[in-house]
Structure formats: structure tokens, C-alpha cells
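Case study 2.
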Amino acid sequence: MERWKTMLGLKAEISKAIELARQNKTIGHSLDASVHISPPDHLYSLLDAHCEDMRALLIVSQVTVTKDKLMENAYESSEFPGLQVKVAKASGQKCNRCWMYSTSVGTDASHPAICNKCLIDIS
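Prediction:
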């Protein structure tokens, strides 16, 4: 229960960075986003282990968790000291099935408009 409470708190804080990226026209919709998270040491293991859960909670295409401090202009959290978030345009192409951006879209000749994750789902 405590883990999910922390993750939901992180979601709220990271969502602020996503909204700033939307206002700055870096992204349009949250699914256009690739979110890079540099958490404080005590949150690294939690976020690293639940990277896919955070991607789903945030409704973004890509999430990366790193121990490195992020690039300039990263959002710095006041709620979670040491948390930095950088939002960029997601890499790859948009999947016609799940609408997430992925570098795997177009790699299967029989289904060129969907990502590998969706290919597994329809197999």
C-alpha cells in the first residue's frame, strides 16, 4: 500500500512537468512524451522496478529512470527533493493500435503500422 501511495505522489509531481512540456509545445498529448526521471537515491529502486507501471500511470509512451542528474531545464520537484524530470518528444512512430510511440513500429512487414507489443497482443 505504501509503495502505491508513493508512486501516486510521484505521478502527481511528474504530471506537473508533463503539463509544462505541453504548455511549452514540446508535446501535444501525454502519449507524445518520453519522460526521463532522475530520482533521489531513496526512490531509485522503486521507480526502476516499476518503470512500466509509471509509464501506464502517467499515460506516456516512454519512461526512463536514471541515477544521473538530468540535462538543463529539467523540472525540479519541491514535493520530492532531489527529483528531476525532463520531458521530451517520444522517439519512434505512433502505433495505430495503442497510440503510443515506439521505435518498433514498422519493423514487421505484415503489420507495418503497429508496435511489437501490440503484435504480441494480436498473435
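The two ends are 35 Å apart (CA to CA).
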